[in-house]
C-alpha cells in the first residue's frame, strides 16, 4: 500500500507514502487515494481531512512512467485508463464531503500541485517549492491545471507559472492566494491539524458548511471536469510527441 489513512477525533489524515520517489503519483497510488477518499466520505464522524506526503515531501508530480513515459501511444487503453485514475484522484479530493487541507512540505510539482490545489485550504512550508513543471518536461498541462491555478491566483499568476515556468516558495504562494499560511517546515503538519481539529469538533456541521462554501465560492468559469477534458487531447499529443511517435 502506498496510501495510508488514519482517523481520529473527527480528523482523517491521508498520507502519500512512497518517499523513495518523492511521493510521485502512479495509477496504483491514485487508485488507493480514491478508495481512501471513499472511506472518508462513508465515515460520518470525519469532519476534516489533511493530505500530506511522507518523508517531508508532498508530491513530485506523476511518476516518470505516468504520463511522461507513456510512449508513442498515450491513447492505448491501459495508458488512458491509468491517466484517468490519476485525474480522478484530484477531482475526487475536490468532492470529499469533509473540509480538506493540504499540508505541503518539500515540492509540489505538476500533478502534485494539482493535488494540493484540489483541497479547500493549504498550509505550506516557507521553503516549499511549487511549480507547474509540465512544459519543462515537454508535456502539455493536464488534470484541469489552468483552472486550478487561475481560480485561486488569477490569470497572471497562472500564466507565469503554467506557461512561463515560474517557481514559487511558500511565502509567495500565500501572497498569490495559493495558500493560507506559510510556516517553518517542521510546523506544517501540526498547523494543518490545528485547523482540521477545530472544524472536526462537529463533523455534521463541517460537512454542511463545506458544501455551502464550495457552492458559493465556485465552480470556476470553466467547470473542472470540462477543463480536464479540454487539456486531455493536447496533453496526449505531447506525450506521443515526447515518446518519439511524432
List its salient traits.
single chain, 246 residues, alpha/beta, six-stranded mixed sheet, three-stranded mixed sheet, 9 strands, 46% helix, Enoyl-CoA hydratase/isomerase family protein
Commentary on this structure:
- This protein has 246 residues and is an alpha/beta fold.
- The chain has nine helices and nine strands.
- It has helices at residues 27-42, 77-93, 111-117, 145-153, 155-163, 170-176, 188-200, 203-217, 224-242; strands spanning 3-8, 11-16, 48-53, 99-104, 107-109, 121-125, 129-131, 167-168, 181-183.
- It has a six-stranded mixed beta sheet, sandwiched between helices. The chain has a three-stranded mixed beta sheet with strand order 5-7-8.
- The chain is globular, with a radius of gyration of 17 Å.
- It starts with a strand and ends with a helix.
- This is Enoyl-CoA hydratase/isomerase family protein.
- Belongs to the enoyl-CoA hydratase/isomerase family.
- InterPro entries: Enoyl-CoA_hyd/isom_CS, Enoyl-CoA_hydra/iso.
Amino acid at each position: 500500500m502506498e496510501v495510508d489513512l488514519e482517523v481520529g477525533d473527527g480528523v482523517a489524515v491521508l498520507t502519500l507514502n512512497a518517499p523513495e520517489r518523492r511521493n510521485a503519483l502512479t495509477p496504483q497510488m491514485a487508485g488507493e487515494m480514491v478508495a481512501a477518499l471513499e472511506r472518508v466520505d462513508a465515515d460520518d464522524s470525519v469532519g476534516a481531512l489533511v493530505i500530506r506526503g511522507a518523508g517531508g515531501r508532498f508530491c513530485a508530480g506523476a511518476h516518470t512512467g505516468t504520463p511522461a513515459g507513456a510512449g508513442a501511444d498515450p491513447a492505448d487503453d491501459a495508458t488512458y485508463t491509468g491517466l484517468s485514475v490519476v485525474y480522478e484522484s484530484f477531482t475526487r479530493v475536490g468532492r470529499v464531503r469533509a473540509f480538506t487541507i493540504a499540508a505541503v512540505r518539500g515540492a509540489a510539482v505538476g500533478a502534485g500541485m494539482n493535488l494540493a490545489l484540489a483541497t479547500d485550504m493549504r498550509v505550506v512550508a516557507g521553503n516549499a517549492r511549487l511549480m507547474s513543471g509540465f512544459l519543462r518536461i515537454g508535456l502539455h498541462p493536464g488534470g484541469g491545471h489552468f483552472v486550478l491555478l487561475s481560480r485561486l491566483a488569477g490569470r497572471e499568476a497562472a500564466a507565469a507559472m503554467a506557461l512561463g515556468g515560474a517557481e514559487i516558495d511558500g511565502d509567495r504562494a500565500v501572497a498569490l492566494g495559493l495558500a493560507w499560511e506559510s510556516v517553518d517546515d517542521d510546523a506544517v503538519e501540526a498547523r494543518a491539524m490545528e485547523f482540521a481539529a477545530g472544524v472536526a469538533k462537529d463533523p455534521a456541521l463541517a460537512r454542511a458548511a463545506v458544501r455551502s462554501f464550495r457552492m458559493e465560492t465556485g465552480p470556476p468559469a470553466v467547470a473542472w471536469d470540462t477543463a480536464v477534458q479540454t487539456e486531455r487531447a493536447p496533453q496526449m499529443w505531447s506525450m506521443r510527441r515526447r515518446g518519439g511517435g511524432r
